[in-house]
Design a protein that fits this description.
Radius of gyration: 21 Å
CATH superfamily: Cytochrome P450
Strand content: 5-15%
Structural class: alpha+beta
Strand order of the largest sheet: 1-2-8-5-3
CATH architecture: Orthogonal Bundle
Bound molecules: protoporphyrin IX containing FE
CATH class: Mainly Alpha
Oligomer: single chain
Distance between the termini: 35 Å
Shape: globular
Order of helices and strands: HHEEHEHHHHEHHHHHHHHEEEEHHEE
Helix content: 40-55%
């Protein structure tokens, strides 16, 4: 469909045409002056790179993801008319729904194993996983590069950090995939059902840590168990709900980027030759372009808890903002020829990991995993292609990426 065929007001993250391919809609939004407003959702839509940075870096609890960072269509249909500002603190919801200082206290309590030094110490473990998986997969000559390779690596690392037996990695991966799948009817994700199931699974591991004394061996969980949160301990359920973001974020995104990135290299043989010329030096550079070009998350939301004026938008308390990271990566004002994959392009900054308060704190692990999974694959495989007739990129209001990419090994 040509971009000119529809007006910007047709943009709706839950519309079937947008979920099937949002890119032309983003082009139109960026070309129109001002910040787009969706009246029925009482929601402002930011589509340009710089404007997204401007709105997400406003502090002072002006914007809080109090209705979740991924509200469903039903949630957005409820208008607040200047209200919508209460934040429940007992029991504590997941930290992502809270403002300062609760957000930061909870984030800091479990960030330790994802900081650079701790992540570097996972290098040998992740390399071992990648090699071991390829030992099993390569003789088959055909497998799903997203799920069977990157997916199992990412889920295994999450199991490792949570103290879950590695044999459960595939089960965890399938669970995250099934919950992240957009409902074809409603266009959304059943957030309450999803959170309840995660709380149950993660709750079991939290219980185990409590029984074992939470001695710091698993700082992701133990850090939260030892937190004195404004004068009280967190319950098992409260600890579990803080960990959902890491559990999901750590499992579902990197595999789609790695598989898609390897496909882009296969589609551009001269780039693949250049990257192969020095894998240790070039893969980290190529991975940055993969992160820009292939990141599947399309948007995240916040609710205004104050009246704010930004980028010409007059945002009232109770309204929502949606930031389109999926559009920012195609912004011609930020990148030359953004729709082309160029392994060594100049990248001054990216929004694939977000910005501001919610900036992805799995960033170091994501980079480590991607570098290792891409480098190991290219080191072990001389030639590969994809069965695109069997590839799957499901329509999604949120994670629009290659859910399944069957790779064929050899000529
Ligand atoms: C290449 C892979 C990844 C990408 C592109 C990515 C992207 C993002 C983005 C865009 C956000 C910001 C969401 C917002 O603004 O509301 C985010 C937040 C987050 N990510 Fe990642 N992520 C990746 C990998 C990971 C990994 C490996 C982990 C953990 C092991 C992780 C954990 C988190 C957490 C805990 C948050 C904070 C959520 C919040 O404060 O709302 N991510 N990620």
């Amino acid at each position: 469909m040509a971009t000119q065929e529809f007006a910007p007001a047709a943009y709706d993250p839950f519309a079937p045409a947008v979920m099937a391919n949002p890119v032309p809609f983003y082009e139109r939004l960026r070309a129109e002056p001002g910040v787009h407003f969706i009246e029925k959702y009482d929601t402002w839509v930011f589509s340009r790179f710089q404007e997204i940075i401007d709105v997400l870096t406003i502090g002072d609890n002006a914007f809080i993801a109090s209705e979740s960072t991924l509200p469903s269509e039903d949630m957005l249909m409820q208008q607040h008319h200047g209200g919508g500002g209460t934040l429940p603190l007992d029991p504590l919801p997941g930290f992502a729904l809270l403002g300062s200082p609760h957000y930061e206290a909870l984030r800091q309590a479990h960030i330790k194993p994802l900081q650079p030094k701790a992540v570097r110490s996972l290098d040998t473990f992740v390399r071992g996983l990648a090699d071991q998986l390829l030992d099993e997969l390569l003789p088959k000559k055909r497998f799903d590069l997203t799920q069977d390779y990157g997916g199992v690596i990412a889920a295994s690392v999450i199991c490792h950090l949570f103290g879950i037996d590695l044999s459960k990695a595939r089960e965890m991966l399938d669970m995250v995939n099934s919950f992240s799948r957009t409902d074809e009817e409603s266009g959304g994700i059943d957030v309450p059902a999803m959170l309840a199931r995660y709380a149950e699974v993660i709750g079991e591991t939290v219980e185990r840590r409590r029984a074992a004394g939470a001695d710091g061996e698993y700082p992701l969980i133990d850090g939260l168990m030892h937190l004195d949160h404004f004068g009280r301990d967190l319950s098992v359920e409260e600890v579990a709900s803080q960990l959902v973001c890491v559990f999901v974020g750590g499992t579902e995104t990197a595999p789609k980027i790695g598989a898609h990135g390897l496909m882009e290299l296969a589609n551009a043989p001269s780039q693949l030759v250049e990257v192969r010329a020095d894998l240790a030096k070039n893969v980290p550079v190529a991975v940055e372009e993969m992160i820009r070009y292939c990141a599947p998350a399309q948007w995240f939301a916040r609710t205004a808890h104050k009246d704010v004026q930004v980028a010409g938008a007059d945002i009232r308390k109770g309204q929502r903002i949606i930031v389109l990271f999926g559009s920012a990566k195609w912004d011609e004002a930020e990148f030359d020829l953004p729709q082309e994959f160029t392994w060594n392009r100049m990248i001054r900054r990216v929004l694939s990991f977000g910005t501001g308060q919610h900036y992805c704190f799995g960033i170091h692990l994501a980079r480590l995993e991607l570098r290792i999974l891409v480098e190991t694959f290219l080191r072990r495989v001389d030639s590969y292609s994809f069965d695109m007739d069997a590839a799957v990129r499901l329509p999604s209001s949120f994670q629009w990426g290659w859910n399944s990419l069957p790779v064929i090994i050899g000529d």
